[in-house]
Fold:
Amino acid sequence: MNSVNDIDWATWTPQQRATLLFVVQDGRVLLIHKKRGLGAGNINGPGGRLEPGETPRQAAVREVEEELCITPKDVSHCGELSFQFRDGLSIHCTVFRAEGYHGEPTETDEAIPLWTPLDAIPYERMWEDDQYWLPLMLEKQPFRGVFLFDGSCMVDHRIDID
Structure:
């Protein structure tokens, strides 16, 4: 596989389903410094895998509660991401944003909270794909993205704006 066009996305089935949820408030976005798991050491949004019986929205809220000890409010769906890795791993990720939250963002064994001004997002410390779809999420522009990765290196991508 050298291109996202080498994959039949219409019949593609992910091995894992996951979520990301970004709290956006007062000209800032709440990111995390990920301490463990896929992407450990990177800056990312809070999120994780769906548990049996959960909807993506339920999983996204639960993950933020577990990782940052806050409950997001005014949660809205923003986009869909499909990741195929050359080693065989495949993940579908549903992206949400929240306009507020209850509680106080707190470091856990999974994540360190990181409020970031919208004009200073540290893309150089994030997954390579984030620079292509995160601005769309921040602009409330619905999107669908497909990505091909070799390890942590993005090989190819395509973003469709809904």
